[in-house]
Amino acid sequence: MNLQWFPGHMAKTRRMITENMKLVDAVVELLDARLPLSSRNPEIDRIVGSKPRVLVLNKADMADHNATEVWKNWFNEKGYAVIAVDSQSGRGFSALEPAIRRVMKEKLERERARGIQRSSIRLMVVGIPNVGKSSFINRLAGRGAARTGDRPGITTAKQWIRIAGKYELLDTPGILWPKFEDPEVAKRIAFTGGIRDEIMDLEELSCELLGFLSAHYADMLKARYKLEDGQLKESSYDLLMQIGKKRGCIVSGGNIDTLRAASLVLDDFRSVRIGTITLEMPE
User: Fold this and answer.
1) What's the pLDDT tens digit per position in 12-68?
2) Are 48 and 27 in contact (CB under 8 A)?
3) Rounded distance, CA 259 to CA 196, Å?
């Protein structure tokens, strides 16, 4: 799957993030808990530099819990402040403020020594498309401060959001990077909907996902689609055909509508109807 997608507005977003970095005290970088490494924009390290940063594994409710704990330990060992949250329920949000205070400890102590009393901390929220930045901000703000949706590209411009007595948040549009050096990274992002389905071959994408699930989450796959062990040993395309047949994706002549079946599988994965799944683990 050779996918290159870097629309012009993302180059504009990259410049905007770089130019506004000097206005904030710290950065909250949202990652998708299902693909923590693949959902890290490699350009963010360069843009953020030495600015204090907290990594947030968002959508933790959709990921394999045990895998999320492994990832948290992995990032901690590399010196990052990291927490896992569910922006829909609010689970994990109590850990955010201590993490921010921890990464800003030296800066806040210097300010106190100089007699500076700040009323709020200015944060920039960054992440790739569809990682859940707007839902995260709305949960933090306790109101619908940012537009949300189940597709990438909802946030199209920067916006400041005030949270009384605590933070001023700079929300930014999702940004990918100019070229996917590793096709596996592009594939994982596409699985989660971080790249628009309109530019994807959904049947190929669905077959790739079924291949991964057969290898790593076979029991969940069998339970969701009432499959037999022998069916899981078939090719991913044959498996897609079996699922299409079982789910009534039939067109005239009794043929399987594989595009409809592919959309069904992707939707089931993204809606957690197959189960809580993590797409990658640390090396």
Assistant:
1) 777 888 888 889 999 999 999 999 999 998 888 888 888 999 999 999 999 999 999
2) yes
3) 16
235 among the known binding-site residues? Answer: no
Q: How many of the other CB atoms lie within 10 Å of CB of 89?
A: 11
Determine if residue 130 is labeled as part of a ligand binding site: yes
Residue type, 9: H
Task: Please give the Cα distance from 195 to 269 (Å, whole number).
Answer: 15
Instruction: Tell whether 238 and 156 lie within a shared domain.
Output: no
Residue 134 assigned as binding residue: yes
Judge whether 131 is annotated as a binding position: yes
* Residue 162: domain span: 8-171
| Residue 255 assigned to a binding site | no
165 and 222 fall within a common domain:
no
Residue 124, SS3?
strand
Q: pTM higher than 0.70, yes or no?
A: yes
Residue 3 has pLDDT above 60, yes or no: no
